[in-house]
Design brief:
Rossmann fold, five-stranded parallel beta sheet, 20 helices, 43% helix
C-alpha cells in the first residue's frame, strides 16, 4: 500500500513559480496550486490541506494573503501557513507573524530552503499528531484483546482514506465515541457533525442533511446549509442509520454516490466534500433481508466496517472501567470498591453495556456514604443481582462472589445447554458470550464437572460434552 503524502496548497499569482512548486516538493508532499485568492479559498472550503503556501500580494486584487489567512483561520481548518513573499514592508511582516503564520520565506527563495522549511513543518505536524493520538486513545478504557483489536481497526480505517465507514455494536457500547476517534485520528482539525437518524422527523431529514432555501416550506425564513455541505471535508456521523425511513434512503444514497447535494426547494446541484461514519445497533444485513433497509445503501455506507465488542465480550475490562468511572465522578474519587464487588459486577450480563455500567457506578458514587463500596451496595443499586440465593453445593462460586447464585441465571444456562445438546460453543453463542466465559460461569454454577465429582445427593441429567473428562448437568436438590 502506497504511503499517503501530506497535502500542500500553493496560492500565488506568479503562475510560472507555481509550476516549479510540485517539482521542488516532489516526494515530500502532494501539491495543489491556484493563482487567485478566490480559487484558493474555494479549494480550502472543499478540501483539507496540511500546509498552505501563500503569497502576500496579488496583482489586480485589493485583497492580500493576510485577508485570505484570516478567512482560513475563521474556517478552523487546522492547516499550517507558510508565507512566501518578496514583501519588505516591516509593518506587514509583523502583522503576518502576529496573525499566527507558521513560517516566512523571502522571495526569491532557493529550492533547498523551501524543501527544508516544508519538511520541518511536516515533521512538527507528525509529532503533534502522535501526541494527540496517544491522548485520544486514553478515552478507550480497557486492555483486553477485543479492545486492542478495536484500537488497531480505528487506526486502520482512519488512515485508509475510505469515504464511508460503518460502526456496528449493541446499544451503549460507545459507537459515537469511536466515530469521534476515527474523525480525530484521521484529521484533528476536521469538522464532526452528528445526526441521529432516529430522532429527526421524516419531514426534516432532508433539511438537516442537504439544507434548504428560503421559502422552501412554512417557517423557512432564511437559507440553511445542510451538514454535508457544512462538513467541508470533515465527517458526518449518521447515528442509528438503520432507523432512517425508507422514503429518505434513495436521497441519501445519491448524495453518497455522487458527492452532490440539492438543497430543499432548489433545483441547483452543488458538489460537496465530506466523509460519513454510520452507526447502527440493529444488524443492517437483517434489515436488508426484511426490506427495512436498502441493499445498495448498505453496501455504500459499509465500505469499511468496525465491530465494537459488547461489555460481556470484554468483562476483564470491567475493573479498569469501574476505576475510570469512579475517578471521573466528584464523589467517587475518594472511594474504593472491594474485589468481591468487582467480581459481582463481572458476573452480570450488562444488556446496557458501558452506558449501563457507567450509570451504576455514578449511582454508587453518589449514594454510598462509606468510603468503601461493598457487595451489599451493588445489590441495592443493581436489582438484578438481588435474587441471589446461597447454594451449599457451590462453594467455589460463594467463595468467589460472597453472594447468592441467581436461580434465573442457572436456569438460563441450563436452557442454553439443552438447546445446544451439550455443545459448549453453541451454548455460548446462544447466550451471546465467549466460549471461555461460558465454560467458566457454567462451572461456577455447578453445571459442568469432572466425572469423579458426581454427587449422590443430586438428580442429574448428563449431557454430552466436547471432552471425555467433562460433562454438563442440569440438577436439582433432592
Amino acid at each position: 500500500m502506497s504511503i499517503q503524502l501530506p497535502s500542500l496548497l500553493a496560492i500565488d499569482d506568479d503562475e510560472t513559480w507555481l509550476e516549479f512548486i510540485p517539482v521542488i516538493l516532489e516526494g515530500i508532499c502532494k501539491v495543489t496550486s491556484y493563482p487567485t485568492i478566490d480559487q484558493g479559498l474555494s479549494a480550502i472550503e472543499q478540501e483539507f490541506f496540511d500546509i498552505i503556501l501563500l503569497d502576500l500580494n496579488f496583482e489586480n486584487d485589493t485583497r492580500t494573503g493576510l485577508d485570505l489567512f484570516k478567512k482560513i483561520h475563521a474556517l478552523d481548518k487546522g492547516a499550517d501557513i507558510i508565507i512566501i513573499s518578496g514583501e519588505t514592508n516591516h509593518r506587514k511582516l509583523i502583522e503576518a507573524f502576529n496573525t499566527g503564520v507558521s513560517r516566512f520565506i523571502s522571495k526569491p527563495a532557493h529550492p533547498d530552503e523551501i524543501r527544508t522549511t516544508v519538511s520541518h513543518l511536516i515533521a512538527e505536524r507528525l509529532n503533534r499528531r502522535r501526541a494527540f493520538d496517544k491522548n485520544m486513545f486514553h478515552k478507550l478504557v480497557g486492555r483486553s484483546l477485543p479492545m486492542m483489536k478495536l484500537r488497531e481497526e480505528i487506526q486502520r480505517v482512519s488512515q485508509c482514506g475510505t469515504k464511508d465507514i460503518l460502526i456496528m455494536g449493541e446499544t451503549g457500547t460507545g459507537k459515537e465515541l469511536v466515530a469521534q476517534l476515527i474523525s480525530q485520528v484521521a484529521d484533528p482539525s476536521a469538522r464532526f457533525y452528528p445526526i441521529n437518524c432516529s430522532a429527526i422527523h421524516d419531514s426534516l431529514i432532508q433539511s438537516e442533511l442537504f439544507g434548504h432555501v428560503k421559502g422552501a416550506f412554512t417557517g423557512a425564513d432564511r437559507d440553511k446549509i445542510g451538514v454535508f455541505e457544512a462538513a467541508a471535508g470533515g465527517f458526518v456521523f449518521l447515528d442509528e442509520i438503520g432507523d432512517m425511513p425508507l422514503s429518505q434512503q434513495p436521497k441519501l444514497l445519491r448524495a453518497l454516490q455522487e458527492r452532490k447535494i440539492q438543497r430543499l426547494g432548489s433545483y441547483e446541484e452543488k458538489k460537496v466534500n465530506f466523509r460519513t461514519i454510520s452507526a447502527s445497533h440493529v444488524n443492517l444485513e437483517d434489515a436488508v433481508a426484511s426490506g427495512k433497509f436498502r441493499e445498495d445503501l448498505y453496501y455504500r455506507v459499509a465500505r469499511e466496517k468496525i465491530k465494537i465488542p459488547s461489555l460481556k465480550e470484554r468483562e476483564e475490562d470491567i475493573p479498569d472501567l469501574v476505576q475510570h468511572f469512579l475517578l471521573s465522578h466528584p464523589m467517587g474519587k475518594s472511594k474504593t470498591i472491594t474485589s468481591e464487588s468487582i467480581q459481582l459486577l463481572q458476573s452480570y450480563t450488562w444488556p446496557g453495556n458501558i452506558r449501563q455500567l457507567h450509570a451504576v457506578i455514578e449511582t454508587l458514587s453518589s449514594r454510598v456514604q462509606s468510603q468503601v463500596i461493598r457487595e451489599s451496595d451493588v445489590c441495592q443499586v443493581l436489582p438484578e443481582v438481588t435474587d441471589f440465593c446461597v447454594s451449599r453445593t457451590n462453594k467455589v462460586f460463594i467463595g468467589k462472589y460472597g453472594a447468592h447464585l441467581i436461580s434465573s441465571e442457572k436456569k438460563r444456562f441450563e436452557k442454553a445447554i439443552l438447546t445446544a445438546n451439550g455443545d459448549r460453543t453453541k451454548a455460548a453463542q446462544v447466550l451471546g458470550m465467549s466460549r471461555a466465559t461460558f465454560f467458566r460461569k457454567a462451572k461456577e454454577l455447578g453445571l459442568v464437572r469432572t466425572r469423579e465429582s458426581i454427587s449422590p445427593l443430586r438428580l442429574e441429567l448428563n449431557i454430552k460434552s466436547e471432552t471425555p473428562s467433562e460433562t454438563f448437568e442440569t440438577q436439582s436438590q433432592i
